[in-house]
Amino acid sequence: MRARPRPRPELRGLLLLLAVLATAARPAGAQTGPDSSVARVVSDSAARVRALADSILLEDDPEDDALLEPPGARQFLSLQSMNRSYAIGSGSYSENVGLLSYRLSVSSFRLSVNASPLRYNAGATSIAGAPPVSVRLDWLPGPGDTLRVFGRSQSSPATLDSAQSLAIGAVGVSTIELESFSLGTPAMVGARGAFSFPDGDLVFGVRAAIEYQPRPSGSNNSYWTGTTISGGLSLAMPTGDLRTTALLDVASSYADSLGGRNLFQGGGNMSVELRVDGLLGGEAGIDAMFSAWFQKPFGNTRSDQPNRLIPVGDTYGLYGTLTVPVGSMLLTPTVALARESASDDAASGRSRFNYAASSWAVNGGLALSLPLGGSIDLTPEIGFARGSADGSFVATTIIGGAMPGRPGRPVTATQNFRNRISGWWVAMELSVRF
Fold first, then answer.
1. Contact 223, 263 (CB under 8 A)
2. d(CA 37, CA 42)
3. In the structure, how many helices (H) and strands (E) does the chain have?
4. pTM value > 0.85
5. Are 284 and 34 in contact (CB under 8 A)?
6. For residues 190 and 169, what is the distance between their CA atoms, to the nearest angstrom?
């Protein structure tokens, strides 16, 4: 029997740190009720889960206000260092990224700024740069309503040469996560609006957005979406202490191929999702969010791009996260299962091309938030990924057959591959509220 590989030294060290800290925080005996520090972190975790759900919905649930800090100016600063490593087939790929996040809440306004310098290594090719710096300003004119203006800078590098595109394409699947996927992106500005219409216990939501990217110049590759218009509907309802939300979103982008330099596959996508979030087990319980989703692209006439390991296709999956109080700390496990599949059959002149490709992955993570003071938290995190990517590509060309009564001969070339996916990541985040 083949021996199981031992965890890397960095991963073993962080696992040991988490175990020691969790043991030290375990109470000596049963408690009759949560102390003030536990009450604070439970409230913080509930607000965090609700804020995550609301940010995806682009809505503001008035019932969440009870979980937030008292009215007034509030600022939040987060610094994170993350190291990711993936093995796909016989190749190894790594990413080192620093994440900076700043948020400001004043009355009914919310300002958010995010930046993340990184270094991506794919063996012979490495890229040092940064995804776009994003800025977002929200105005909450009333309960359940949000108006947003947002924008981002171009990434660095703003375009990718052929070697850089192929280096990212070696891990380019929708079932794993890398910040490097956003390299080669032009600047963008946009606006969104979301409005809620309560009807008893039901809340009906409507949202729409428009984004614009200026046309990139130069001769290298770029992921350019041009003008994007999107809209969505949601229906939220209480289910005991939880909230269940059904969502439907459609987005369509209008951009040409840039003469073969555009890495964007074209068209748009339709997505549906069912989400459940809320508090399990009463006020001193566990905050949770679970989601099942499906996304289908349409009009993606350029789905097979060099920055993709497999062509863009239908994607679906499950996601779940819990926030569990452990003494004065918060333990947050997450797990996600995703699968993507694509197929096509096209003909051009005397040639025919068809393919079938798919990828799946399980991603799991564990974070532990450690309060270092009244407003400072330190959060180590570990995670893993397991899955595979496979595909079959067949090209057939008719040779000859120009003479009357003499048929041509088909010449077929086939390429098959099946690559295992394995990966891990470690991160450390320091956050300050003031």
1. yes
2. 9
3. 3, 18
4. no
5. yes
6. 28
Can you tell me whether residue 313 is helix, strand or coil? Answer: coil
Give the pLDDT means over successive 10-residue stretches in the chain (434 positions). 38 39 35 34 45 48 42 84 95 95 93 95 94 95 92 96 94 92 96 94 95 94 96 93 93 95 95 92 80 95 91 95 91 96 82 90 96 90 96 83 62 89 96 91
Q: From CA 58, how far away is CA 51, in angstroms rounded?
A: 10
| Pick from 48, 25, 63: nearest CA to 243 | 63
Say what the pLDDT of residue 396 is. 84
Token pair for residue 116? 């993340």
pLDDT computed for residue 37 by the predictor: 36
Examine residue 7 and say whether the peptide bond preceding it is cis (omega within 30 degrees of 0).
no
DSSP conformational letter for 159: S
To which residue do tokens 């497999």 refer? Answer: 310
Dihedral pair phi/psi, residue 92, rounded to 5°:
-125, 140
**Tokens (6 digits) for 193:** 């609006």
Q: Which of 253, 179, 267, 268 is nearest to 212 (CA)?
A: 253
Residue 21, phi then psi, degrees to nearest 5: -65, -40
Closest CA relative to residue 25, chosen from 325, 323, 328: 328
Cα Rg for the chain, rounded, in angstroms? 24
Task: Give residue for tokens 């969502």.
Answer: 247
Nearest partner of 285 among 320, 324, 330, judged by Cα: 324
Sign of CA dihedral 257, 260, 263, 267: positive
- Residue from 210, 205, 194 nearest 248 by CA: 205
Cβ atoms within 10 Å of 375's Cβ, excluding its own: 12
User: Which of helix, strand or coil describes residue 315?
Assistant: strand
C-beta atoms surrounding 60 within 10 Å: 23
